[in-house]
Amino acid sequence: MRETVDIPAETLSRLIGLIYGAASDDDLWPSLLQAMADFLMQAGAQDARLVSTAETDAIVASWFGDTSSPLPSTASAAEQQVFQLLAPHFVRAWDMRQTQADAETHRQISDSVLDRLPVGVALVENTGAVVSMNRALRLILDNNDGLVLVAGRMESRPRKLLEDALREVTSATAHPGTRTAFRLEQAAGPLSVLVSKLQPTNETTPLAMLWVASADVPLVPEGGLRELFGLTAAEARLAQRLVRGLTLEESAQDLGTTTNTAKTQLKAIFAKVGVRRQPELVQAIWSTPLWLDQGGGQPNRLPLGKHATPAPRTSAGDGRMVLPDGRALAWSDSGDPDGLPVIQMHGLSCSRHLRHPDDALLREASIRLIIPERPGTGDSDPMPGRKVADWPADVRALANHLKLDRFAVLGYSAGMPYAFATAQAMPERVSAMFIVAATPPIERVDDIKAYSAHFRMALMVARYMPNLLPPLLHVVVRSIRKDVYRYIESILKAMPEVDQQVFRQAAFRENYAQELLAGVKHGGQHFVIETLLNVHGWQVDGHRFAMPVEFFHGALDWHVSINAARALVRRIPGAQLHEVEDGGHFLIYSHWRNILHTMRERLSCIA
């Protein structure tokens, strides 16, 4: 019989309160997990315990299959008691989330009202990041080049106009009614833009409202004119242009008809509307609610459109093969086709899409970069019951397919365990191993302290209470799928300036959005499995490498401290650490050229 652990009433009460709070506020998850982690540490959960792949699969399946939620057989008495006491509350909390989802449906109905307005409306942050926009603005963006959406951020052409306007209305000294306006001259016709400050809320980021009007967008729906006044289609289209301020001659030219035909149609319009002159016609139409409703019998919501989400992108270097067991393996192949081959192991929730936007840097260094997607990521098929140690077989099959006798491996962030496994399994083919922004293994509670607070609690749950990981990551997966650019903007707030600077490049944000969506393409279950394997599926001690091993780590890395990287390198005989003083966790992009040239020098010496 398992030993019991006394849980103070105030601790249990606080945990239960946080569970219900997190049901309606995702921002409370870190507080809940911190409280659970504090209790486990106080209960003596110091040494990390491995959880078998079969057990983690059962845990994951139970959450996604709405069955009971088992704990691993290695669970401590504290884990058993905490889960047994809290599980019913988690179930009720997730029921509350469903209620919240219903409320979200009602909010979307309210948003559809904005979709029927003839003027473009958007809510944006002071950086230009779009929080929401209506149908009319999507239409304007698809048909104009004066205002564009670049990787989730609104930009004007020239950029300075909107940047200055946002800076003015969102400044700390601007009062709530502050507004400014400007016009964008373009070939498709001018755009009028009004930028106004919103009333302060509990949001930490200043927000502004954009109102955008285009002269070439009909302000009154054709269908409404036909229904309300009994106009023909041709008469309604003429009335639309007259309301926009065009003369009769300009309207006829725009419609591709003669002025005489337009005059005849205008007389019919006058008779049906009950007016005698053109100004009276315009006034009569503006006196109706037609101009407020752009639905016209069509669906309220437009598709997201070419600017809103990254379209699936392939290139000449993308490849897909069938492995011996029938699974598909996808990869990207970029850089110098005749250069030294490097196979990169991508990070957690990443994919083949997340690489430096400028492939010219690879050609400059004479390096061919190949990034295979792990099972269950992007276009690679899932592999039930997989382990980290299974990955080298996929890499071997890919290398054989590409006719690579020798190659280097590059592990980025959480791709490090897979780089280690590949180098150890194929010493005769791996010429060198490079690790960028390493994520050390978690073997004791103290190891988690090396990670940033943003990830610390998820790691604690994955290591000590893996049964709670699926609902935690469900929040992340849902956010990514709902609006990937909004998710990117939310995580940027936790990053230091050195990494935020990387995300200011629109091309990088686009690549990052691509890789996030690819990472959750097969569902949250595979994201959970990848996380559990990263925590439970490998270790450092016992690894002996026959090839050079070099690490690159930023001194400003916010994800993993430089001290943890130093301690890790000391555990690997012969390994070398390159400390990048001004590098963060994304130094593989901010310092890519320097890393490539260092890799090239090492590979040239080996060759």
Automatic annotation (TrEMBL):
<dbReference type="InterPro" id="IPR000792">
    <property type="entry name" value="Tscrpt_reg_LuxR_C"/>
</dbReference>
<feature type="region of interest" description="Disordered">
    <location>
        <begin position="297"/>
        <end position="319"/>
    </location>
</feature>
<protein>
    <recommendedName>
        <fullName>HTH luxR-type domain-containing protein</fullName>
    </recommendedName>
</protein>
<dbReference type="InterPro" id="IPR029058">
    <property type="entry name" value="AB_hydrolase_fold"/>
</dbReference>
<dbReference type="Pfam" id="PF00561">
    <property type="entry name" value="Abhydrolase_1"/>
</dbReference>
<feature type="domain" description="HTH luxR-type">
    <location>
        <begin position="228"/>
        <end position="285"/>
    </location>
</feature>
<dbReference type="InterPro" id="IPR036388">
    <property type="entry name" value="WH-like_DNA-bd_sf"/>
</dbReference>
<dbReference type="InterPro" id="IPR000073">
    <property type="entry name" value="AB_hydrolase_1"/>
</dbReference>
<dbReference type="InterPro" id="IPR016032">
    <property type="entry name" value="Sig_transdc_resp-reg_C-effctor"/>
</dbReference>
